[in-house]
Design brief:
The chain is 51% helix and 20% strand. By secondary structure, it is of the alpha+beta class. A hairpin with a 5-residue loop joins strand 2 and strand 3 (64-67). The longest helix has 34 residues, at 70-103.
């Protein structure tokens, strides 16, 4: 039955079609019994086979059904193959787009939605995640992710703009992670992850970049740690 299913027939359609080919002209009741398909379903299945060109009705006193020539099954299979080839070509084009995107070391997005899109696409830290925050926006999902990373032993450090606007949210994060320090910031947000990725949000330009480049990540990591070492601890 599996070979018929691959051609686009359901399991019950395959059972009924096989019995039609084996038995020839037959009534619905006998076909139900021979195929093992419940009688309540037999007419829907026969209608489907007729629509696919694989069965015909013989207009006798008691309605009978016969299979069409196997050439119709071949045509049906060939039509499926054509559709599969089209789907395959479309998948190839999608893969090309995906490959270009993956190989491109820089992704740029515009606006607030673009910022959140890139944040969502950032890899999960395995070693460290160092961030520079502009707003310290508190979100429960981000807070939960922070807890999980700390629990797994990841090194999570933050430099944040700390003023009346950001103080409340920054203190919420401090309850979870003590490695947050003050940082003078005129409009940049950044994440440096595992010597692999750097996200840079230019607040005034409303542009967010994600850069997949190890040399850049390593340099930004060192610059971050130098700044973090001298940054003021939040009390």
């Amino acid at each position: 039955m599996e070979e018929y299913e691959e051609f686009g027939l359901t399991k019950n359609e395959a059972k009924v079609y096989e019995q039609l080919v084996r038995l020839g002209k037959i009534g619905s009741g006998d076909l139900s019994r021979e195929s093992g398909v419940p009688y309540g379903k037999i007419y829907n299945i026969l209608d489907s086979l007729i629509n696919k060109g694989l069965a015909e009705v013989i207009p006798e006193k008691t309605k009978k059904f016969v299979p069409t020539s196997p050439k119709h099954l071949i045509e049906f299979i060939e039509e499926k193959q054509k559709k599969l080839e089209k789907a395959k070509e479309k998948a190839k084009k999608m893969k090309q787009f995906y490959d270009v995107k993956e190989k491109n070391p820089i992704v740029m997005e515009i606006g607030r939605k673009g910022f959140y899109k890139i944040v969502k696409e950032l890899k999960h830290a395995e070693d460290y995640n160092y961030t520079i925050k502009w707003t310290s926006e508190y979100r429960p999902d981000w807070a939960e992710n922070l807890r999980k990373n700390l629990k797994k032993g990841r090194d999570i450090k933050t430099l944040t703009r700390y003023d009346k606007e950001t103080e409340k949210d920054a203190k919420e994060y401090l309850k979870i992670n003590k490695n947050i320090r003050k940082f003078s910031n005129e409009g940049v947000a950044m994440s440096i992850i595992d010597n692999e990725q750097v996200m840079i949000a230019l607040i005034k330009s409303n542009v967010t970049l994600m850069v997949r480049d190890k040399p850049l990540a390593k340099i930004m990591k060192q610059m971050f740690l130098d700044s973090y070492k001298d940054a003021e601890i939040i009390k």
